[in-house]
Amino acid sequence: MNLSQYSKEINKDASLNPNARLQLYSRLNIILDNPNYSYSIVQGNAILDSYNLIAVQPTSEKLFQAACQNMDVDIIQLDMSQRLPFYFKRPSINSAISRGIMFEITYAHSIRDQNSRKNLISNAAQLVRATNGKNIIISSSALDILELRGSRDVINLCTLFSMTPESAKAALTENARAAIVHGRSRQECYRGVFQAESVSDSPSWKRVRIQ
Questions:
Q1: Which of 8, 27, 68, 70 is buried most, with the most CB atoms less than 10 Å from its CB?
Q2: Is 166 exposed, middle or buried (0-12, 13-18, 19+ CB in 10 A)?
Q3: Exposure string for 12-46, b = 16+ CB within 10 A, e = fewer
Q4: Which residues of 115-153 are buried (b: 16+ CB within 10 A; e: fewer)?
């Protein structure tokens, strides 16, 4: 995994005026095929912090577990066009959910190949069962504009994964925003702790003191 130093220069153009209607975010995708990567993907890494979103694609069960439990990432992406070499386990999944990490399902490859479509439906349904439909985001990973689909079509596709219309809609909207917020907190916070206490001499709706 060689991350070049010019990543910061690239990211400068991605930070637009917060009042602009269109916001661009930078994302780094890392294929995890070496256990040693676990020691590099940590909070405080200057190169990783220069990206708004960090996504990893584990290639083994051990690396998937490490991504869920230890790595400071925002998104876990899996190649669902292929048969996965491991099964999802609840402890790892729950650990990722409690840390605010999102699981990404991409659909464009299922348009290109029938076998990929079968694998996608099977793998995605397994993930939905393991997560109870929580912390999932849906994206296209399209290589061509013809592989893009409208939101209603994507929600209909999600029903094949046993997702409810509500959780499918959240995967396209709320969860995607949550991933961006998670990335921002990864960049700006470092193991912060706060304590809230009531303050008796203030109105009830203001009785919070942050330390």
A1: 68
A2: exposed
A3: eeeeeeeeeeeeeebebebebeeeebbeebeeeee
A4: ebbebbbebbebbbebbebbbbbbbbeeeeeeeebeeee
Q: What is the pLDDT of residues 159-191, one digit of tens each?
A: 999 999 999 999 999 999 999 999 988 887 755
If pLDDT is split at 50, 70 and 90, which confidence band does 197 have? low
Strand order through the sheet with 75-77: 27-32, 53-58, 75-77, 102-106, 136-139
CA dist 29 and 3 (Å) reads 11
By 3-state DSSP, what share of the chain in percent is helix, strand and coil, each rounded to 5? 45, 15, 40
Return the number of other C-beta atoms located less than 10 Å from residue 203's C-beta. 7
Q: What is 134-164 written as a DSSP string?
A: -SEEEE---SSGGG---HHHHHHHHHTTT--
